[in-house]
Amino acid sequence: MDCRENEKDYGDKAMNEMRADYLFYKRAYEDNSQNPLWQYMHEYFADRYSAEAKKILDTDRLDTQILYSIRLYCYGCVGMTRE
Question: How many domains does the chain have?
């Protein structure tokens, strides 16, 4: 086996792995399941940033405007990732 055959095998393997990754993420972001990944990610980050805001503001309750702003920010970030 010469060097070119090794490069071709490696290139084919890398392309197959990229296709598999692409298909996984494409399916994960589809809306046809009960609990799509993008929705989980939105909730995760919204909860995480809400907890951080509570810590920074030294409170255990956030008003609805701050919660809305956090959720909107997270929706935009996750939505851009989804595209």
Answer: 2
